[in-house]
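Q&A log
Question type: sequence-to-structure
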Amino acid sequence: MRDIVFTRRSGWIPNVIREDVELKLMLGAGADANHEPRTFTFSIGEAHLAVIREDLARHLLLWSAVLPLCDDAGTRGRLDENAAVALLDPVLLAAPADVDALFQRIRWDRGRLIAHGADIGLLERGQVYAAMRAATETSNGKRAQEYHANRRRAERGAVLGPLDAAILKYTGQYLHGATVPRRMPDAVDPALLPEVMRVIATAEQACAGMRIGRDPRRGKRATDKRDWDRMATTVDAAVRRAHPELVDDAVRTVSFLMCSEATDRSRSTPMEDDEEAGGDRAGFGESARKTILSFTDDKGVEKKWLSDGPRTASAEFWEFVGDRSAGDNEVFTIEDEEMGEGIQLHFYADSIARITTVHEGEGGSDPEYRVEYSLVDGIGGYRNLVSTFVRGGCAALEQHGPWISDVDEFERARRRRDAQ
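Response status: OK
Response body:
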């Protein structure tokens, strides 16, 4: 039978229970293999209970000292109860100086104490007992997160000024650098907000007109890494030039914000249409444009496109790629059966083949094809080649070479490129 003997308002601070006739401290910590919280108990005495009742600071200190033992137990191991019991007298009953000395020797959960109001300066100086004079039962997890974020920055030599910190808070990355940035003006000290907005304005002006396109090769929502890097470099340079006092963390979070917003805009629009309405960039008239095309992938899936449909061939093809592309599906073909020509895109090799029919098969014989290969420079290169083929067929691709018909020669060219 289990009865609760003592508990505090915060449900996470360890409780004292009586199990049968024995007093125990009970705490929740960690999770099991099914991600359910684990509960640990170990025996305490009446003298320990008396201190826990009356002294919040020592109660929290004991919790902080026991938590690493719970971490050691992992998802299914047992708590080292002997080690936990050995902490009781030194934490709850010893003189303050001895408590400080103990915390110099053992592992303890610093963040837990900071969340409950511990004085960070005193903690850093090893005055653990004195640091808990301002302890509170209620927890402020954000305070602990800020401490750990600042400590991580300090470990890599990053020291934030007031404007640096304000910019990171504006983007929501002050606590976690991996958080997707967003605009949070309410998180910034109003006195610093105008300065933050000047930095943001510098970034916006630098990347005005730039965009981050989609990269269907990596999935339906993927975007072009080169476009991202280009925008980030542009914003970084402009912000550093206009605001040289900012540290790297602040500059990076601003460029991350600009790129993330550009990515969101790209993902919220339909797959891009690469063909200019009414244009004739390849130099071929309307008669050269395709009217019926067949799209296939490496798994044998086929999709037909007709010119009288609501969308252009380029847009439909890249939508098809975004839906079908995967690590084991990286070869896509566009074929014009009527004209006997097509292109095959090899995403795994950053290359393309144009295929034209030299002679039709007769009397049951196979047709004769001419296959020529060319290297491709990223998704932008692929988009240009697809659009050009749709406009003018294989003939229009001539200017986008060189085209190599010898497979061995092409492989050597590809290896040379990859080695650079």
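Response note: Residues 274-287 have pLDDT under 50 and may be disordered.
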